[in-house]
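Hi W.,

Here's what went into the run:
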Amino acid sequence: MTRRFDYIDHTADIIIKASGDTLAEAFAAAAEGMFAVITDEAEIQPNQRETIEIESIDREGLLVNFLSELIVMHEAQNVVIGQIAVELLSDTRLRADLGIEPFDDDRHAGGSQVKGVSYHMLEIEDAAGDQPAGIQVLLDI
Amino acid sequence: MSWNGKSRRLDKYKVEIDQSYQNEGMKRHGLTMSVPGLVYADDKMWDTIVTDNSPDQVANVATLPGIVGRSIAMPDIHHGYGFAIGGVAAFDADHGVISPGGVGYDINCGVRLVRTDLTFSDIQPSLRKLVETMFNNVPSGVGSSGRIKLSDKQIEEVLANGARWAVSNGYGWDEDLEYIEERGAFENSDPSVVSPNARKRGAPQLGSLGAGNHFLEIQQVDEIFNPEVAAAFGIVEKGQITIMIHTGSRGCGHQICTDYLDHMRRAQKKYDIPLVDRELTSAPVASPEGQQYYKAMQCGANFAWANRQMIMHWVRESFEQVLKQPSPRMGMHLIYDIAHNIAKLEEHEYEGRKRRVYVHRKGATRAFGPGHSEIPERYRQYGQPVLIPGDMGTASYLLVGTEQAMQDTWGSSCHGAGRRMSRKKSTKEHPADKVFADLEGRGIYLRAKSRRCVAEEAPGAYKNIESVIDISHHSGIARRVARMKPLGVVKG
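Here's what came out:
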């Protein structure tokens, strides 16, 4: 399993470039990339797990709704999320298994606040041949 | 990458994007601009603006149905998502659209300015203590929760009544409401259209600053450009202390935007609005989806007004704790509170007749001219106070709205310095230690929750506020009243 994320420059916001051997892994990488914006990812040490299901009208909406739901969990339950596994049930449905840790002000503070997940410049590409699956997504900071 | 679409300079401060301009995206979707674009920029500012392709976003907005006049951009424009930050666009109230992306995630992100009778010499010995006390009294940073956690019933009241809820619960003075845009709450707003998720995100965060570009700042008046108007606003001398608060609707507003982008995408087929950028997702403003978003956005705006009201209350308390005087005796009156991310149904004179339009201001400030009934009576003959925060090292401005703005920009002006550098680049070029030291060298005490935030928000990452203000002033869409320099800053 290979998954990666990186960031590309944008004047006001942050663009995540995520990839994985499969599209599901790229979804998970994008989510972990988002939490690396919110906090120091090395400090996310999940001590409980939760499964969520997400749906939308298309693949782009599915990614945006997935990441948006993680922001809701982060802010409403005051937790950080890591060790994420995604299963794509179809183009419009997914199930995700999440590692969760309560937000610890000493270890988790100091990152950026993600206000929302944008459709602007959003790109989702399947794996093809040697090319891994890839996602580009812009977060409003 | 530099934008080189079809444009022409109208005068020293304005560039028009030709209506015939069609970018690749527009060609692909068979779309054209139905009105020209108008960017407020001098030559130097235009050279910066074209580097981030934001003129294309101004052009894209001109393809949306029912746009009236021009797709306008303020001098602090920069590349956003869908609409540029610094964009103003009005859509016909019957035939136009409304777009969550034309308001942004942070609904009613805005600024309030508090005056005092204090001068620099009164607070100089206590400056650090004042900043530390504000930092302790006002929660900030990522994961920041307010000092109270709202019950379901309370969040309902906040969404419905905004700053009025805050004042009637002891956060502030009755007179404060008079000096807030919309008097602190949209009338007749309907919380039933706000989702459980938005309530869940909002409930723990009311009364918190957040992170990013939000701040609390103790300032001193450094220059008065128009003494008569300044005096009417309560600014009487150089060295006078003011306090500026910049924050928005926190997770509550962010989630309302997220929710309605999703709802409107689902309704997209029904209304068949062709889009050059998915983030321009819109619904006819007269449709159920359009009206539901407008109502939910109003609730998000109300949340933000309650938020800034509570924070101001704790700022007054902080001054009382440190300076051992009641805040009324220190003359800590609210000058004004304005939104800079909002859509509003307004009536404007356009081509000789009254038009009802939904004015979207995304990173733009309302700047109504003299005589408008929306302006507090005490200020009405002069125009609406316009508050422009700068970066934390330079200066912020108090301006006044003009008749020119009513004619040219739907009564709108700029909203801030505007970023010119990405967060990544800023972090590389401006390490936190250097920012702290630089500011200290300029006599500014900074207290922040996050070193990363300090580096990302370094003064060098922003455009020069002076040129943004110059263009606004000389083009006549707002006039300079006073300039305030930072003394103490609280960041997330």
